[in-house]
Design a protein that fits this description.
Elements: H1 8-14, E1 22-25, H2 32-39, E2 45-49, H3 53-56, E3 65-68, H4 75-81, E4 87-93, H5 98-102, H6 128-134, H7 137-146, H8 153-164, H9 172-178, H10 188-203, H11 206-220, E5 221-231, H12 234-246, E6 265-267, H13 277-282, E7 290-296
Parallel strand pairs: 1-2, 1-4, 2-3, 4-5
Antiparallel strand pairs: 5-7, 6-7
Helix pairs in contact: 1-2, 7-8, 7-10, 11-12
């Protein structure tokens, strides 16, 4: 299976679908969420985004479906290009498809030896190998600390810079051997998952893209339209939470002349929705997922 969609029923229910409405799935992947949205539409439309050519092979043959092979950071522009004004709901599942981890050739996983790639868009010329061989020590430290939340980010950065000066880092095994002195024996897999996550986020500029998506969602949603986002990383979740509560990713609350909170969104649930124990047992990759829902009110 290309991907098992996380929090499937919860996220589709969160969209509060109008059968004749227009919806956007900005992370199409294997199409699991999109197919469920289409089941609830009659005369409505669904626009799906994905920058990966592999995902394009999963596109749905349906007159109500439009596939856009591009980054969701350009959401508003592509809606306008397709002569679509405001939409009734936007869904984002920010996790990486199981396909990316399972396909060794993509270089996303530390379980398979291949070129250390990690590009969602394979037309890009910026890969994880390029990052590891060209970024300065301070830039590497920032990535490991900020995106991987690693306590030994300094050691990791120093080790990479020292080792690559002798031999370039080209493959997953090259990289694992380079960082072996900085890899703890306890919880090794958890540590490596964080290291690889930090590289993937930087290679694909995921945090910048998420910020652009949130800004574009405000331009693209109708009043009472729903923004539904599933995150897997504390930094992403904090950005989404802040945006839904304040209208900006910094979380700075603005107030109007009368002292009322001036935010274009209203959170639909007080707390994030998380997967049940039963879902996690069936799909361990759902463990860190958090679903947040907001409705545009102005």
């Amino acid at each position: 299976m290309y991907h098992i969609p996380v929090l499937l029923n919860e996220s589709i229910d969160a969209l509060n679908i109008n059968p004749t409405g227009i919806y956007v799935d900005v992370t199409f992947g294997g199409g699991g969420h999109s197919r469920e949205i289409l089941k609830r539409l009659t005369a409505g439309k669904l626009v799906a985004f994905d920058r990966d050519s592999d995902a394009e092979d999963n596109r749905i043959n349906d007159d109500r479906f439009i596939f856009v092979r591009n980054n969701f950071r350009f959401l508003h522009n592509f809606l306008r290009y397709n002569k679509i004004g405001e939409v009734d709901g936007i869904l984002a599942d920010l996790g990486v498809s199981s396909h990316h981890f399972d396909d060794a050739s993509r270089g996303f996983s530390f379980r398979h030896n291949a070129e250390i790639d990690m590009r969602m868009n394979r037309n890009s010329d910026f890969s994880a190998a390029k990052l590891l061989n060209e970024y300065g020590e301070n830039e590497l430290r920032r990535i490991f600390h900020y995106y991987g939340e690693l306590t030994n980010a300094n050691q990791l950065a120093e080790t990479v810079v020292e080792k690559r000066s002798k031999t370039p880092i080209k493959t997953v095994d090259d990289f694992l051997n380079v960082i072996k002195p900085a890899t703890p024996k306890k919880d090794e897999n958890k540590f490596l998952a964080k290291v690889f996550q930090s590289l993937r986020i930087e290679v694909n500029k995921e945090i910048d893209a998420l910020e652009q998506l949130l800004v574009h969602s405000l331009k693209s949603l109708k009043i009472k339209g729903r923004l539904v986002v599933i995150t897997y990383h504390s930094l992403e979740d904090r950005m989404v939470k802040n945006f839904m509560r304040s209208g900006n990713t910094d979380g700075k609350i603005k107030k109007d002349f009368y002292g009322n909170t001036d935010c274009p969104f209203k959170p639909v649930t007080r707390k994030a929705i998380v997967p049940s124990d039963a879902e996690i047992e069936k799909n361990s990759r759902a463990r860190s997922a958090k679903l947040r829902i907001a409705e545009k009110i102005k």
